[in-house]
UniProtKB/TrEMBL annotation:
Sorted UniProt keywords: Membrane, Phosphoprotein, Transmembrane, Transmembrane helix
Entries under SUPFAM superfamilies matching the protein: CheY-like
Name of the featured protein: Response regulator
One Pfam family of this chain: Response_reg
PROSITE patterns: RESPONSE_REGULATORY
UniProt organism field: Larkinella terrae
Phylogenetic lineage: Bacteria, Pseudomonadati, Bacteroidota, Cytophagia, Cytophagales
Residue ranges constituting the Response regulatory domain according to the UniProt record: 70-196
Length: 212
């Protein structure tokens, strides 16, 4: 005990206070670390919770947006249409698919959607050669010249041609995307799966019912 500074009368009160404070400082450091670790844990939990809520809201909003949504396919070749239809089913694209073989029928359908109060399609797939390239461009130009909201509809060209002039001129006329038709059915599946992930699960498209 004689060696213990707490029982050494030669030690000053200041030194004694310092000695007595050491255990408390040690405990304080431990509790501080525990407290801040707990705070960090709560922060991470809140971030994860907010992300889950956001993803849940996005999924719910996406499902609501896709409910009763339609896809308009303008394709003059019935064999190609059957291939497209099969690929859409394989990709589980849950949209009501409307097929029309001519541009005139497509424009009439879009106008009827407004007149009768039917929902406009979420997306238009347009074959460029109907059967000539000029026919596809004419349909595209008429769609873009229609009154709102028809002129706002996303138009994706599906064409067997990957010629640079066809691609560039189609974009000049207001298409949203240009996709070269695959030659193998497995590639059709890959193409439509990518389109599904982008157009139906990633991008936010305007709610035409709400705006108009």
């Amino acid at each position: 005990m004689a060696d213990d500074p707490r029982f050494n009368p030669e030690k000053s009160p200041k030194k004694l206070r310092k000695i007595y404070r050491q255990p408390f400082r040690f405990l304080f450091r431990i509790w501080s670390r525990i407290f801040f670790s707990f705070v960090r844990f709560l922060t991470v939990c809140h971030v994860i919770l907010y992300i889950e809520i956001y993803l849940s809201m996005s999924t719910t909003s996406n499902k609501s947006r896709l409910k009763n949504a339609k896809l308009l396919v303008i394709e003059d070749n019935e064999d190609q249409w059957r291939l497209i239809e099969k690929a859409l089913r394989e990709c589980h694209i849950q949209l009501e698919t409307i097929w029309v073989p001519t541009g005139q029928q497509a424009l009439a359908y879009l106008e009827d959607c407004l007149l009768v109060g039917l929902g406009l399609p979420l997306l238009i797939l347009l074959d460029l050669y109907l059967p000539e390239r000029a026919d596809g461009w004419a349909v595209l130009e008429k769609i873009r010249s229609q009154k709102t909201p028809i002129d706002c509809l996303p138009v994706v060209v599906l064409s067997a041609s990957g010629h640079p002039e066809d691609v560039a001129s189609s974009y000049d006329r207001g298409i949203t995307s240009y996709v070269v038709k695959p030659t193998d059915f497995r590639d059709w599946i890959t193409t439509f799966q990518a389109m599904k992930e982008y157009w139906l699960e990633t991008v936010a498209l305007p709610d035409l019912h709400y705006r108009y």
